[in-house]
Write a structure and sequence with these properties.
four-stranded antiparallel β-sheet, single chain, alpha/beta, binds adenosine-5'-diphosphate, binds magnesium ion
């Protein structure tokens, strides 16, 4: 599965519409405006990174894409057709799969069982149908190997795996069950450097398998390691939307650090160095009580 599914050039395939597209998406909760005028395009064989601070609107955005929330305004298209999902099941049926941070796995069950959780294979007929354990074990093992994951024991409880390995099992599962778009909500947020590396490797593997990957993170370094396209959301609005070719890691880091605000802060600090201005008195009443220090 490589070149034939790539629609980014659109020359050889008749389908030129992106896998998924959002046009002017907005979402309000009561009088809180969580998203406003968001545009997004996800193509096969690309990693689209969505970055933003806490409260920026990232989770709300992926919940709309995943069919958990309907948008308050705007259009959502899959393969160029408008969709109006009323449940995650409907999104999944169109190949849009989400791997949430708190993975839907049962720690005490073996890896293969978790791989097939909710979609168990059975054999036999009528009342004698039973779980096809042998086939599920074999397929889980094959699929994990295909992704380059070599677990010592497919029968080990998932709870014994590292956080990174669990994320990877969830990615392999989504790929096996036919995901075309894979949404990863902060998969590296709770992981150390080495574990994050493991997950990032499989984010690339999913892209190589021809999926359109949406990678949510607030870490510009992780994003830049795997991303083809970067969207920074701030207070519910798109602050930056650029392909890799137009953006350096420094640009991205600067944006994520709150670029303009940092410049302003630096200016404030410069001013504070000025002996005419006493920063402690200026800040009185705002920060912690400095007088007792
Ligand atoms: N179900 C909800 N009801 C009310 N407000 C919400 C709800 N979900 C999110 N919000 C608000 O929308 C904004 C964006 O939140 P969220 O999408 O969770 O941001 P992020 O995932 O980037 O941290 C925040 O101000 C948050 O408080
Ligand atoms: Mg979130």
């Amino acid at each position: 599965m490589t070149d034939t599914t790539s629609t980014s050039t659109g020359n050889t395939t008749p389908r030129t519409a992106p896998l998924l597209e959002l046009r002017g998406i907005g979402k309000t909760f009561g009088n809180i405006r969580a998203l406003n005028g968001i545009n997004l395009r996800v193509d096969a064989g690309e990693v689209t990174c969505i970055l933003g601070d806490n409260g920026a609107g990232k989770s709300t955005l992926i919940k709309i894409i995943a069919g958990l929330y309907g948008p308050t305004s705007g259009e959502y298209l899959v393969d160029g057709e408008p969709v109006d999902f009323s449940s995650p099941r409907q999104a999944l049926d169109r190949g849009i799969a989400t791997v949430y941070q708190d993975l839907a796995m049962v720690p005490l069950m073996p890896v293969w069982r978790n791989f097939f959780l909710g979609s168990e294979l059975r054999r036999g007929v009528g009342p004698f149908r039973m779980l096809d354990v042998a086939r599920m074990r074999r397929i889980a093992d094959e699929e994990l190997r295909k992704m380059g994951i070599d677990l010592p024991d497919i029968d080990a409880p998932v709870g014994n795996l590292s956080g990174g390995q669990r994320q990877v099992v969830a990615i392999a599962r989504a790929v096996y069950f036919g995901a075309r778009v894979l949404i990863l909500d902060e998969p590296t947020a709770a992981l150390g450097v080495k574990q994050s590396g493991v997950v990032l490797k499989y984010v690339s593997a999913a892209r190589e398998a021809g999926l359109g990957v949406i990678f949510i993170t607030h870490n510009p370094h992780h994003a830049y390691m795997v991303g083809d396209h970067f969207v920074v959301i701030k207070l519910g609005e798109t602050e930056l939307d650029q392909p890799r070719s137009e953006l350096t890691l420094d640009d991205l880091t600067h944006h994520m650090a709150g670029g303009a605000e940092l410049d302003a802060l630096q200016h404030e600090l410069e001013r504070a160095k000025d002996p005419q201005v006493d920063p402690l008195h200026d800040a009185a009443g705002e920060g912690p009580d400095v007088q007792g220090l």
